UniProtKB/TrEMBL annotation:
It holds the Pfam family AA_permease_N. Homodimer; adopts a domain-swap conformation at the scissor helices connecting the transmembrane domain and C-terminal domain. Interacts with KLHL3. Interacts with IL18R1; this interaction is increased by IL18 treatment. Keywords: ATP-binding, Cell membrane, Chloride, Disulfide bond, Glycoprotein, Ion transport, Membrane, Nucleotide-binding, Phosphoprotein, Sodium, Sodium transport, Symport, Transmembrane, Transmembrane helix, Transport, Ubl conjugation. It comes from Junco hyemalis (Dark-eyed junco). Residues 656-796, 821-1028 form the SLC12A transporter C-terminal domain. This is Solute carrier family 12 member 3. One of its GO terms (cellular component) is apical plasma membrane. GO terms for molecular function: ATP binding; sodium:potassium:chloride symporter activity. InterPro entries: AA-permease/SLC12A_dom (IPR004841), AA_permease_N (IPR013612), SLC12_C (IPR018491), SLC12A3 (IPR002948), SLC12A_fam (IPR004842). The chain crosses the membrane at residues 170-196, 216-240, 261-280, 286-307, 341-359, 379-399, 454-477, 507-524, 536-553, 573-606. It is a multi-pass membrane protein.
Length: 1029
């Protein structure tokens, strides 16, 4: 096993990894693994024979191949069952040691396919050139400053004073706190998701896609990247408009107002692109510069509020801090078409967004799990405080209406003067009544600049806010888009995923973002596109919150965020509020955003990308399946809810595609289908094959669009393997009740033991209360030889080529599941439209109705929908009308829609002599020819060959045998052009009917028929009812 004895010798110094020869040295020469030998050392360069490298430790007092826990063992973990570097496999620890080339090695590791590759990789590491370390940022520089700059914008300078005048300080604070509530909840959700595992580059897209899966993640990633690209244009135009206004004030326009915006905008975005292309380090320095400019402008404003107001400022409504101004501005004073609470809320809310700027460069952070929560929440806190302070301070200093004229100064208490300014010596009554005031909080957007100590610094702050937001979006869009391109969820975008330099900069993505931004800058009118951008960002917030909620309620063991200060219900509330705000902002833009998300979602659902990210959707699917399966166990069975749940003995499903297609046709979206395979051979030899092939067979079924499960068992023989499947297959009420298998065409030439096994399987199915369905096609079912010759030489011919069950793998071969799933799909009759043919049902014995039910379900499918179903029953020639009416009445009560019923009065006629002779020749090789010997002598003769038929058994079953011959004649007469024949087969009594005789019956009944024939026998319990309860 894995633990090896060590002698009482002093341990040598251990300095790293040991070879297997060192670890297992005691097995060979009796020397201790740490005993120095000539030409050997602890760092032996001899190649290891383990499937993965191991560490040499004596932590527990003995030498072992086992390794202690280490970070490297988990760093590259992907899916359950995938190999991991550094840790020995279970086979290395568990398999028998074998001497190979003087070394004692685990047998399983000798055949390890990944061993050679892993060895080459390990040997190549010392000589590998060390790449330069990429630039990484901490939580302050990488997240907090970046988020604060993106949250602050022109609304802080130009709109917040006006909102304060309209809504009053109290409701303005409510608007701010409502907005911040949404962003804070989203920040908590981001913190939880980003601390639930290692976060790579891709930001918002990475967080959503790895949590909710590629469908929602891909759609949000694409529109989020586009929204950021357009946001670059929006912020740049905001900057260009401010510069244009300054030029207008000094009569220095370049061309005209509109073209000036275009010229300044293109030049500005080109400069920002140059900063971005210079690298993240330069971009971060530029952001810090903008941050300092905004801080200086904010301090400049606060200083200006305490400086005594000059006459010019008083004429414009500024009187420093006054309690009565604060009281008047504390309550709302709605004006204009936008004068409503939700109208102002929709104007302010975009200024609270921008919290994803730090998460969007997650690949450039030193520790995203620490930086994203800390930096995002701190940015929300400080920006919120700045908004609250600004609205309170400016609301306590500036009146709502002012004329700006120095001539409006009056003595305090002058008659005819109305308004708060009268008590300060100013009369703004005329312009206030006429609503023609140019200054004051309600009329002058530049109130901050007027209040500040030095006005140009406020302008510099506006420049810093717009340019920093544009730069953040210019960096975010390519970073998110690069991750989306690498995941290859959408076509034609992979070109932009290539990274350059030590930070893997998406230069092609930068250029694409630049082109999009320039295109929208040239429009110079973003009022129409801006609401859509806001809705795209809100879509992201809603899905981030929903991701956190969904991951929490699935109770997945993998959901273990180290950030604990979140609530799943708060996250759900945040998702709902985000959707509501989308419609409050602009309902038509919300509909457009949802339409685009749904379209992209549908595309990814249709394409079904081959990715596995362990999303919460997978966990939710498991939860739902588990809950419904357990709940189904509490439901009592009823005939009305009977469903044919099939265990199909396909062997490898790709060997018998017709059998798979037949059952898949009538069980699709209706009932359980389980493809069973018996791997015959020693368990130790077959278990690796079972693990390797199960995934490939499942993918093959999915590619063929068959909704079925695949399972296999390892057994010493076919019958015992099928018994395992019959007893153990399924879960709760989701258990098979019908055994479906292919007809054994080679029963006459096969070994007698396999013949006994095949018929014994049918007996076992009836013993376990299963229905049985045997399918025979003229050309056979097994296409394994064709696959071997032309497609995928994976398996040898099946041991039982036509019984639809066991298989033996070719020795020394290992099939690749990917190759198996991508092999050419064989076409079958059940994949083509049948046209206006017939499905003929020979309901000869009442088996509970299964013979009727399966063709009925088949006829409901589109490919078989035009087929006419005919029912044939046995009868007497003198009672044909009565018997036909009785069967038609019964079928009408079953509501199957079968109206064409035929009575077979000649079913009891004697078959033609040549057909009787053919049957006798068929069973001749299997007869004992015991003559008139007594029973004891006959039993002794057949003791070693129970499949033989005695003369007495031939005579006893003569009538039954002739009935099968006659039925075959009838089938050939009536159903030679049918699309499908379904017939009730005879049952051979266990212990009384030899297997060869029973197979002769089935052979005679179904031979020489062109259409597929389904021999269906229920378990004698009702599967059809005409009662309502």
């Amino acid at each position: 096993m894995a633990e090896l004895p060590i002698p009482d010798v002093p341990p040598a110094r251990c300095s790293g990894r040991f070879t297997i020869s060192t670890l297992l040295g005691m097995e060979e020469g009796g020397r201790g693994p740490y005993t120095p030998t000539e030409g050997s050392s602890c760092d032996s360069a001899q190649p290891t024979q383990l499937s993965s490298s191991t560490l040499c430790t004596r932590t527990f007092g003995y030498n072992t191949v086992d390794v202690v826990p280490a970070y490297e063992h988990y760093a590259n973990s992907k899916g359950v069952g995938d190999p991991r570097k550094g840790r020995p496999s279970l086979a290395d620890l568990h398999s028998i040691l074998k001497v190979t080339g003087g070394l004692a090695v685990p047998i399983a590791s000798l055949a390890s396919p990944g061993h050679a590759a892993g060895l080459e990789e390990a040997e190549g590491e010392p000589g590998r050139d060390s790449e330069p370390e990429p630039v990484r940022f901490g939580w302050v520089k990488g997240v907090m400053i970046r988020c604060m700059l993106n949250i602050w914008g022109v609304i802080l300078y130009l709109r917040l004073p006006w909102i304060t005048a309209q809504a009053g300080i109290a409701l303005t604070w409510l608007i701010i706190l409502m907005s911040v509530t949404v962003t804070t909840i989203t920040g908590l959700s981001i913190s939880a998701i980003s601390t639930n595992g290692k976060v790579k580059s891709g930001g918002t897209y990475f967080l959503i896609s790895r949590s909710l899966g590629p469908e929602l993640g891909g759609s949000i990633g694409l529109i989020f990247a586009f929204a950021n690209a357009v946001a670059v244009a929006m912020h740049t135009v905001g900057f260009a408009e401010t510069v244009r206004d300054l030029l207008q004030e000094h009569n220095s326009l370049i061309v005209d107002p509109t073209n000036d915006i275009r010229i300044i905008g293109v030049i500005t975005v080109t400069v920002l692109l140059g900063i971005s292309l210079a690298g993240m380090e330069w971009e971060a320095k530029a952001q810090i510069l903008f941050f300092l400019v905004i801080l200086v402008s904010f301090i400049n404003y606060l200083v200006g509020t305490v400086i005594p107001a000059t006459a010019e400022k008083q004429a414009k409504g500024f009187f420093s801090y006054r309690a009565d101004i604060f009281v008047q501005n504390f309550v709302p004073n709605w004006r204009g078409p936008e004068g409503s609470f939700f109208g102002l809320f929709s104007i302010f809310f975009p200024s609270a967004t921008g919290i994803l700027a730090g998460a969007n460069i997650s690949g450039d952070l030193k520790d995203p799990a620490v930086a994203i929560p800390k930096g995002t929440l701190m940015a929300i806190f400080w920006t919120t405080m700045s908004y609250l302070v600004l609205s309170a301070t400016i609301g306590a200093c500036v009146v709502r209406d002012a004329s700006g004229s120095l001539n409006d100064s009056v003595a305090v208490g002058s008659p005819g003067c109305e308004g708060l300014a009268c008590s300060f010596g100013w009369n703004f009554t005329a312009c206030a009544q006429q609503q023609s005031c140019r200054y004051g909080l309600s009329n002058y957007y530049q109130s901050m600049s007027m209040v500040s100590g030095f006005g140009p610094l406020i302008t510099a702050g506006i420049f810093g806010a717009t340019l920093s937001s544009a730069l953040a979006c210019l960096v975010s869009a390519p970073k998110v888009f690069q991750c989306l391109c690498k995941d290859q969820l959408y076509p034609l975008i992979g070109f932009f995923g290539k990274g350059y330099g030590r930070n893997s900069e998406p230069i092609r993505g930068y250029m694409l973002t630049y082109v999009i931004a320039v295109g929208f800058i040239l429009i110079a009118e973003l009022n129409a596109i801006a609401p859509i951008i806001s809705n795209f960002f809100l879509c992201s917030y809603a899905l981030i919150n929903f991701s956190c909620f969904h991951a929490s309620i699935t109770n997945s063991p993998g959901w273990r965020p180290s950030f604990r200060y979140y609530s799943k219900w708060a996250a759900l509330f945040g998702a709902a509020v985000s959707v509501v705000i989308m419609f409050l902002l602009t309902w038509w833009a919300a509909l457009i955003a949802f339409g685009i998300v749904i379209f992209l979602l549908g595309y990814v659902l249709y394409k079904k990308p081959d990715v596995n990210w362990g999303s919460s959707m997978q966990a939710s699917s498991y939860n739902m399946a588990l809950n419904y399966s357990v709940g189904l166990s509490e439901v009592d069975e009823h005939i009305k809810n009977y469903r044919p749940q099939c265990l199909v003995l396909t062997g490898p499903p790709n060997f018998r595609p017709a059998l798979v297609d037949f059952v898949g046709t009538f069980t699709k979206n209706l009932s359980l289908m389980l493809c069973g395979n018996v791997l015959i051979g020693p368990r130790k030899q077959k278990m690796p094959e079972s693990r390797l092939m199960a995934d490939g067979h499942t993918k093959w079924l999915m590619k063929r669009k068959i909704k079925a499960f695949y399972t296999d068992v390892v057994a010493e023989d076919l019958r015992s393997g099928v018994q395992m499947l019959i007893q153990a297959a399924g879960l709760g009420k989701m258990r098979p009740n019908i055994l479906v298998l292919g007809y054994k065409r080679n029963w006459r030439t096969a070994s007698p033991e396999s013949l006994e096994d095949y018929v014994g399987i049918l007996h076992d199915a009836f013993d376990f209360k299963y229905g049985v369905c045997v399918m025979r096609m003229k050309e056979g079912l097994n296409v394994s030889r064709v696959l071997q010759a032309h497609v995928n030489p994976t398996f040898e011919a099946a041991e039982h080529p036509e019984n639809g069950t066991g298989s033996r793998a070719a020795p020394g071969t290992a099939a690749d599941p990917t190759t198996l799933a991508s092999e050419q799909q064989a076409s079958t009759i059940f994949q083509s439209k049948q046209g206006k043919k017939t499905i003929d049902i020979y309901w000869l014995f009442d088996d509970g109705g299964l013979t009727l039910l399966i063709p009925y379900l088949l006829g409901r499918k589109k490919r078989w929908g035009k087929c006419k179903i005919r029912v044939f029953v046995g009868g007497q020639i003198n009672r044909m009308d009565e018997e036909r009416k009785a069967i038609v009445s019964l079928l009408s009560k079953f509501r199957l829609g079968f109206h064409e019923v035929h009575i077979l009065p000649d079913i009891n006629q004697k078959p033609r002599p040549e057909h009787i002779k053919r049957f006798d020749e068929l069973i001749a090789p299997f007869r004992l020819n015991d003559g008139f010997k007594d029973e004891a002598a006959v039993n002794e003769m057949r003791q070693g060959c129970p499949w033989k038929i005695s003369d007495e058994e031939v005579d006893k079953n003569r009538a039954k045998s002739l009935r099968q011959v006659r039925l075959n004649e009838i089938l050939r007469d009536y159903s030679r052009d049918a699309a499908l024949i379904a017939i009730t087969p005879p049952i051979g009594r266990k212990g009384r009917c030899p297997s060869s005789l029973y197979m002769a019956w089935l052979e005679t009944l179904s031979q020489d028929l062109r259409p597929p024939i389904i021999l269906t026998r229920g378990n004698q319990e009702n599967v059809l009812t005409f009662y309502c309860q």
